[in-house]
């Protein structure tokens, strides 16, 4: 079987379509790379892209797209609702098929070192690529924000894995990591009170004593409404209905409600099946083999072998 990995970079631009197109072109022009999705948010001023391919092809596409982003984005002029520290803000690598975590870590290291060398900027390794558990996490780095990183980066233990211990004013910093599949969702509330969104986010995220495997922040949108932006880093152990129901419960406590939910990027079939089992009360006899699309995919795959 072929080695396949995924890269899901987040770039600090969600408004200028010409800039977004130029960055994506650097990905799609690499032979052997397939673009899975791209999603831009003007409120967050952020674009999330997902692409797959061989480790070498994905590494090339990741480096090229990050270089283009750093060429076209000036962090001194960037403003958005989502926390960020750099133009090519975060670049997670996910093993998909016939590839080890260790191989993905080597890809992450090469991406981080190349960007640091070419742009004279600090780069961090996180999650499974981190040198040790004591290294700063993605959440710790990102929540610091670009503006505050100029001082934070000088603190003992917060130095980057590659590059200078000072921020690049134009490019900022970049985080490159290795992780499992993550489900990213936004829950839009019917309130314009950001304090409520932040209270709900604090109540559901693991770091504040909420649900295990859940990361969450509260943000305000341009239309005035607020969101709880969530990452479920282990949807098998913490199925989606748990954070959703908890958000609903806290929203009602504060006199608001969930207007709608939004899936960011791709979502595994199991996450949706588990949600269907819970809300439709499907009994335990149900299996993914009862899903027509899965059976069709399995059939077509068997014919191509």
General description of the model:
The protein is built from eight helices and eleven strands. With 305 residues, the protein is an alpha+beta fold. It has two domains: 4-178, 2-Layer Sandwich (Formiminotransferase-cyclodeaminase, Chain B, domain 1), CATH 3.30.990.10; 183-290, Alpha-Beta Plaits (2-Layer Sandwich). The longest helix has 19 residues, at 101-119. The relative contact order is 0.11. The mean pLDDT is 95.
Helix content: 25-40%
CATH-defined superfamily of the largest domain: Formiminotransferase, N-terminal subdomain
Q: What is the CATH first-level class name of the largest domain? A: Alpha Beta
Give the tally of β-strands: 11
Q: What radius of gyration results from the CA coordinates?
A: 20 Å
Please state the oligomeric state of the protein chains shown.
single chain
**Average pLDDT across residues?**
95
Task: Report, as a whole number of angstroms, the end-to-end distance.
Answer: 11 Å
Here the CATH topology of the largest domain equals: Formiminotransferase-cyclodeaminase, Chain B, domain 1
Report the total helices: 8
Q: Structurally, how many domains make up the residues?
A: 2
Query: How does the overall form come out from the CA principal axes?
Result: globular
Largest sheet: 7 strands, mixed
Task: Report the structural category.
Answer: alpha+beta
Q: Strand share of the residues?
A: 15-25%
> What order do the SSEs take from the amino end to the carboxyl end, as H and E?
EEHEEHEHEHEEHEEHEHH
**From the coordinates shown, what is the CATH architecture of the largest domain?**
2-Layer Sandwich
Low-confidence stretches: none
């Amino acid at each position: 079987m072929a080695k396949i990995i995924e890269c899901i970079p987040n770039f600090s631009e969600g408004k200028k379509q010409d800039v977004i197109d130029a960055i994506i072109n650097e990905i799609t022009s690499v032979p052997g790379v397939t673009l899975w999705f791209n999603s831009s948010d003007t409120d967050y001023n952020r674009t999330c892209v997902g692409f797959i391919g061989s480790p070498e092809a994905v590494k090339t596409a990741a480096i090229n797209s990050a270089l283009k982003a750093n060429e076209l984005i000036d962090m001194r002029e960037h403003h958005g609702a989502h926390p960020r520290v750099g133009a090519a803000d975060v670049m997670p690598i996910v093993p998909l098929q016939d590839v080890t975590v260790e191989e993905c870590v080597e890809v992450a290291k090469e991406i981080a070192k190349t960007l640091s060398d070419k742009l004279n900027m600090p780069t961090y390794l996180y999650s499974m690529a981190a040198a040790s558990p004591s290294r700063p996490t993605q959440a710790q780095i990102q929540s610091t924000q670009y503006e505050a990183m100029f001082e934070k980066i000088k603190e003992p233990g917060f130095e980057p894995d590659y590059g200078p211990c000072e921020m690049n004013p134009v490019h900022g910093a970049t985080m490159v990591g290795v992780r499992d599949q993550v489900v990213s969702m936004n829950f839009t509330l019917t309130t314009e009170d950001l304090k409520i969104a932040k209270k709900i986010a604090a109540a559901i995220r693991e770091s504040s004593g909420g649900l295990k495997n859940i990361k969450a922040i509260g943000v305000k949108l341009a239309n005035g409404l607020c969101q709880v932006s969530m990452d479920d880093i282990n949807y098998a152990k913490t199925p989606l209905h748990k954070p959703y129901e908890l958000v609903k419960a806290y929203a009602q406590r504060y006199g608001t409600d969930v207007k709608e939910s939004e899936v960011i990027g791709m979502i595994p079939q199991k996450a949706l099946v588990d949600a269907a089992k819970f809300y439709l009360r499907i009994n335990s006899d149900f299996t993914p083999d009862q899903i027509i699309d899965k059976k069709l995919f399995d059939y077509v795959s068997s014919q191509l072998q």
